[in-house]
Amino acid sequence: MAALDCGVSVRTRLIAMLLAVLSVALIAQYVRHWTAVPATVARTSDFAGSYVAATLWRDGHGSAVYDDSAEQAALAAEGVAIGHDRIPFENPPSALWPAALVTALSPEDAYRAWSLLQLLLALGALLIVVRAAPWPASADRVVKLAAVAVGIGALPVALLFTEAQWDGFSMLGLALAYSAWRRGKRATGGFALGLLGSVAKPHLLIGVVAFLVGRRDWRALAGLAAGGAVCGLAALAAVGPAGLATYARVVVTPANSPSTQMLSLTGLAASWLGSGALISLLTYAGDAALLAAAVLTGSRSRGDAARLEVGLFTAVALGLVATPHLLVHDLTLLAPVALALFARAGSLDGRPWPGAWSAALLAAWVALDVAARLDLGNAATAPPGRLVPIALLLTALLGWVMLRRVATHGLTTPMTAAS
């Protein structure tokens, strides 16, 4: 038996090390790409719009942060070529505060600094989760490190880094919320998520909100609302009521988000059926059904701490499909909850890692990554259409099956009074 245990341990470590090596190779590839980005391209990164808006705001032109002509003029002044100067700022006004911190740097240096910040936030989020997650007592450290490496090596994190996007804040907020909820601090976790998740992309939280409603976790929802209110006050302080009204119009009519490129149900419908009032109505109905499923997921996990990981994972996947505006880098929000569920899957497997559930979850993560690579930059309006929403739905289905498995596997852990 000792020899068998030793053999299993060697097998586990070899597989984990192989995954880690492959992930590190992917990480090295996108870091190499990032180091080779020339200054002219750095000026046209996704962060360029935020940099210009924060610079205008810093210089006392807060009314111009959502003015396309003013932003284009500022980008042209920085040397951005005509035809590449359409990078509008479409984040909430609260995003101006952190973006302003790098406006003292040149556009190129600001891009580098922001990219590194987002990568550090993503890494920090996964490290927080790996410490808080319910790993089996037999889990080897190399398995945990491999899980973090797989999360960081995925394409969404690569694009978060190379495009200098904002999702690192949402990742960190979700990781802090999960860690707090694991320790029974529901309001604290909700506040962290509401604060960090609302800085730039509050729409990505709709699945989590639906999950908490179904779970009837009013303390977490109150904390979430409080954190969002702080961001709202920061936005009001930044641009005033008129600026908030302008932002509301930007949200309703985004300037650079063709529906065919969206990776949610919106993109799936547009890539198969085109556009029109009827298509929009069907999409809204589908979004409502997805959020209802997320509420049901929360209800099925209510009162049981052992179902937190799988319920949250499933709800986040459903919420991403229901989010009208979703691009590849936004899929990073799934990474922290996938890592948490990966830890829980070890208890479900009942055998040395990787068991059936761990392997299924890893396969779903790889499939989602492959779908994202195939969808990247694809705006074709013909079958097979966008693949990511299909992969997300299948991922949510896996989560739902795992949720039922947890309920029948004897892993029930009653919620404490403090939780």
Give a quick rundown of the structure.
The chain is mostly helical.
Structure overview:
It is a single chain. The protein has 419 residues and is an all-alpha fold. Helices cover 69% and strands 0% of the residues. It contains 18 helices and no strands. The longest helix has 35 residues, at 218-252. It is globular, with a radius of gyration of 21 Å. The protein starts with a helix and ends in an 11-residue tail after the last helix. Residues 1-8 and 412-419 have low confidence and may be disordered.
Overall structural class, as computed from helix and strand content, comes to mainly alpha
Residue fraction in strands:
under 5%
State the helical fraction: 55-70%
**What is the general shape?**
globular
Rg from C-alpha positions? 21 Å
SSE order, one letter for each helix or strand: HHHHHHHHHHHHHHHHHH
Q: Any low-confidence stretches, pLDDT <50, length ≥5?
A: 1-8, 412-419
Q: Work out the helix count.
A: 18
- The average pLDDT is 88
The largest sheet is: none
Number-wise, the strands total: 0
> What is the distance, rounded to the nearest whole angstrom, between the alpha carbons of the first and last residues?
41 Å
